[in-house]
């Protein structure tokens, strides 16, 4: 009867035990946002450091590993910065067409055929295979269609689109929210991983910050795996959400990064030291030029950040009229006397 | 010079401890050392015997508890 | 925000610890044989603690061994709050211990030159078991280059083949239905095996076994194989066993495993004899577990029995783990199975883990197909929150919409249960004094005697509480959640985060929970630990040093700083002595000589 060793009123110990039990039991959701911006990838691949195929295969292994952790674990994949779709959910793939059993049968047949073509896999766990195949499938078709779309855009003369990473991020958060609200998955833990190749210029500042705050509020960590140029905003995203930001210079060992530093389950976070850098660039970007601002102006009505004052002397975001006198004063070249701080309509900010 | 003694640590409330000490005084060679109000070091092989004796003693003392089953 | 994670997982923990114990105790040779199969690796991986999983992932793609100290670096150092032991450290030690027990983690000692001082020092490196690493990599990547393929791969392949074949036949049959009816054809046309059918099939099988255990009147007795296993596992016993046991020793409560039949000393009891089996203490405990752990309990016993019957445990385990990775509602050809596994197949059909349609033309054995049921496919899934076998089956039992709980318990110990299932009533009867039975519900009262009776039968208070919790009426759960949210909101609004952490989520009235625990304590007033008492320390330094080390590794049960004594569990003793000798040698003072 040694088993009966539990005291009714001493719960300190059992509380501790609970913590670890919870750590072990709760399933989690991993959402990956893959930046597929073709122009950026072209740059990276030309420089010879990175290969899209390698990254995708490393990513698939990571998704498999996540599913291996716990049978209740789920994965989802979004693509961002695609010229064809913008931001889109790739897996799980909700297709309206295959509602009928006939469709699903066709689907599974297609899957099976693809199995031979794409993965050449044998002995792979079935669940993994289904996920991997549908992802590879989708990316395959994406790559096929992307060039023509890009060409038509180039012909029209606009090669620069606003990145849709924030779109993917907000979609991902909505997806998490929906799952967590549903009865079946209540209590599901989630985290987001961004694999990003584009620089900050492609990021719309306001929407990305809003997504970050949403994630922070939902207590969802945003991990960032940065290939290519460093990104200030994503650093801030991971910092604000207790995530990991890793800038990878040598992508050959990508799988090692993905399976260690970027593989920390939300439930392990209280225990494990996060391998993230401590110096974070907190600068914001100018609303007009999209460049990072060291010292700039802030609209006192809507707090929009400006590096230059627009010619019409109106805030570009909220259209409030700025005080002309003040602006002329601010625009004055510095004299020997120190500038008096504007405190009515505008003020200088020092962000760093 | 530190010493290590093999045995079983018994953790219980003081009333039970008193009972075990009483059992020890009746049968001997059970308690190796009394540590504090709630702990005793006993001979590991005597544990089942202690338990049996205890429940015997306790059921004698707690007989009338049977009535208040609605707490 | 969201409801707190309720620990309705005690029973699944129980199963985990039992299967883990079994796996730990296998010899290393069997381990390495097991790790050849990717499915098995996956299943074993899922059984590990989270941190151990994380360690495996970090080591998996690492070609070289890494220093042991690196494993520590991942762990956040925790502020020591008062005398609390470092929970993170303990958790880490546990995780590493599990990895070592399963021979997953190998330690290598290397002499390394210190980069600056140039001194030679021994550093412990760790590396994953190479066989496991290869198989697990294969499981994750789906590649296996240059290595001879083993059986599990063939399975996957032949499954694919067979499915393709069956699809072909399906197609041809839809074109020309007059072609000769093959087996697959028959099934496709006559009755398609649906998930719903499989669910009700396995439920019927499993319920039947449970009904037999509680002694309700049933039409079809479970097969002899099931009955033998029930008896072997000590969940049930023959009247003659009981007399025998009582005459020998009334006190000992370990598993009464009677393997005379297995050893061939005594003839096997006849089927008729087995039908008179009676439930034992362990049987009662068994009934209170959730269905997943019940199955595991039986399967583990099956494993032990199969060893006696000279079946290869690797084959048996691989098959069990493979079942967990199969897909519900899909048919699989039997030709992929080894001979041992074919024997197992028949047994597993009896438990309802597998549906194996009997065919008329028995000569066509190669093309036969078996269907894993939900009981089988959720074997290796331990998430209690999602659709596992137990929830699905509970839905089936209640036949209502998704709510599975039907028990209401009041603070005055009265209990109401909306059920018509004789099984549930029988289970309740184990610890509740049932009073009235209505058409769709029973009422009763939890009394000291009723709980005592259960406790004496070997059911623990925790089991009773978990059972009540997991079967609580949705109304009770909702109320508890509201109460929790309100308290939480209040405490956080006044900024009392410490109390906010302490708030418990209570489905059952706390009075009842405490009283049940008190009744248990009444039965068992003492708590014992085996180990060693350290005393007569020469100085404070020695004492403090050893004590703090012992507390760090979590082996100190009791301490008395004034008299300089502490008590160490027997597991931790060796470690402590080693440490003591190390530091004492270092400080060149007298060494500890334990007189055991």
From TrEMBL, chain A:
Source organism, top-level taxon: Eukaryota
Pfam families xrefs: Tfb4 (PF03850)
Compartments, as annotated in UniProt: Nucleus
Record's keyword terms, sorted: DNA damage, DNA repair, Metal-binding, Nucleus, Transcription, Transcription regulation, Zinc, Zinc-finger
Chief place where the protein resides: nucleus
Biological process per Gene Ontology, one example term: nucleotide-excision repair
Family as reported in the entry's similarity comment: Belongs to the TFB4 family.
Subunit structure: Component of the 7-subunit TFIIH core complex composed of XPB/SSL2, XPD/RAD3, SSL1, TFB1, TFB2, TFB4 and TFB5, which is active in NER. The core complex associates with the 3-subunit CTD-kinase module TFIIK composed of CCL1, KIN28 and TFB3 to form the 10-subunit holoenzyme (holo-TFIIH) active in transcription.
Listed name of the protein: General transcription and DNA repair factor IIH subunit TFB4
Organism expressing this protein natively: Eeniella nana
Automatic annotation (TrEMBL), chain B:
SMART domains: Tbf5
Keyword Transcription regulation: yes
GO terms (BP aspect): nucleotide-excision repair, preincision complex assembly; transcription initiation at RNA polymerase II promoter
Transmembrane segments: none
Endpoints of the signal sequence: none
Record's GO cellular component terms: transcription factor TFIIH core complex; transcription factor TFIIH holo complex
PANTHER family attached to this UniProt entry: GENERAL TRANSCRIPTION FACTOR IIH SUBUNIT 5
Known partners and oligomeric status: Component of the 7-subunit TFIIH core complex composed of XPB/SSL2, XPD/RAD3, SSL1, TFB1, TFB2, TFB4 and TFB5, which is active in NER. The core complex associates with the 3-subunit CTD-kinase module TFIIK composed of CCL1, KIN28 and TFB3 to form the 10-subunit holoenzyme (holo-TFIIH) active in transcription.
UniProt record similarity statement: Belongs to the TFB5 family.
Protein name: General transcription and DNA repair factor IIH subunit TFB5
Organism of provenance: Eeniella nana (Yeast)
Phylogenetic classification of the source organism: Eukaryota, Fungi, Dikarya, Ascomycota, Saccharomycotina
Gene, per the UniProt record: TFB5
UniProtKB/TrEMBL annotation, chain C:
Keywords: DNA damage, DNA repair, Nucleus, Transcription, Transcription regulation
Domain Transcription factor Tfb2 C-terminal as annotated: residue spans: 514-580
A Pfam family assignment: Tfb2_C
Cellular component terms per the entry's GO annotation: transcription factor TFIIH core complex; transcription factor TFIIH holo complex
Listed Low complexity bias regions: 171-181
Keyword Nucleus: yes
Region annotation (Disordered) ranges: 162-181
Record's subcellular location: Nucleus
Membrane-spanning parts: none
InterPro entries: Tfb2_C (IPR040662), TFIIH_p52/Tfb2 (IPR004598)
GO terms (BP aspect): nucleotide-excision repair; transcription by RNA polymerase II
GO MF term list: ATPase activator activity; double-stranded DNA binding
Superkingdom, natural source: Eukaryota
Function, as annotated: Component of the general transcription and DNA repair factor IIH (TFIIH) core complex, which is involved in general and transcription-coupled nucleotide excision repair (NER) of damaged DNA and, when complexed to TFIIK, in RNA transcription by RNA polymerase II. In NER, TFIIH acts by opening DNA around the lesion to allow the excision of the damaged oligonucleotide and its replacement by a new DNA fragment. In transcription, TFIIH has an essential role in transcription initiation.
Protein family: Belongs to the TFB2 family.
Protein's recorded name: RNA polymerase II transcription factor B subunit 2
